[in-house]
Amino acid sequence: MAFEPRFAVAVEWGACAGVALPDVAPPESEWPAALHAGERAFARALGDARRAAWIGGRLALRAALDLAGLPCVAPILPTERGAPRLPDGLTGSISHKAGLAVAIAGPAGHPPISLGVDLEQLRPLRADIAARVLTERERAALPAAGPERERVVLRFFSAKEAIYKALDPWVGRYVGFQEAEVAFHPGGALSARVALAHGEGPFAIELQDLGREAGGHRQPGEQGLAVQVGAEQVLMLARARRG
Length: 243
Ligand SMILES: CC(C)(COP(=O)(O)OP(=O)(O)OC[C@H]1O[C@@H](n2cnc3c(N)ncnc32)[C@H](O)[C@@H]1OP(=O)(O)O)[C@@H](O)C(=O)NCCC(=O)NCCS
Description:
243 residues; 5-stranded antiparallel beta sheet; 6 helices; 28% helix; globular
């Protein structure tokens, strides 16, 4: 079966879910029933290259909303900036890579927060992206050249992509990699601060690397399936709030 659920877990900020992605979407008759009619119509119009990932992202987001006890009766279509548009009171985000689509969803809260997620496959990088993606201080914290350095660079990258998605509803513009700074602390904790070029904010950012915390395979909790991301994947969550 295409789009099989891979995991769905309660997290501090709501719920996170993943579904397996086929290389190519199957015929519409085989699309899971959880996909809203409005989403089906949208997916029908997409090219083959995008369709499977887009459907998988919606299914992961709906699974996360369900687990968080936040059902959404409206179709989840993209905003003009490409983010999933959720009804007022809900926040959520999608990422897909290498056969897996993931999503996080939760209540938008009072005062409001917004969530972002990013999935990356740890791999040898084609180019050293550190100069473009990392600030001077972040580069100073890198290990010497080698696979560990590449892993750390990719984790910085993933954290910034998740931050980007969490900030998007607030700022609605492209945010450059130099506008956010991430720090990894002993024991695996992460922190970040943003200094936005257009003076927006201030924003408080929190980060969580679910892939790392899961150690690749979290034991099944009381709610939902175990997280099934490999040890070679980064599953980064970000939460943004004003303040
Ligand atoms: C938009 C962007 C974050 C997407 O990341 P990606 O690694 O290419 O792709 P992912 O699979 O992780 O994410 C794709 C999903 O992101 C979501 N998305 C797209 N644009 C978005 C936006 N502006 N805001 C929030 N989410 C967005 C969509 O849900 C999309 O999936 P869908 O089209 O199937 O619904 C990335 O392409 C980008 O433009 N980054 C900007 C630079 C940046 O990250 N700066 C960091 C500064 S802190």
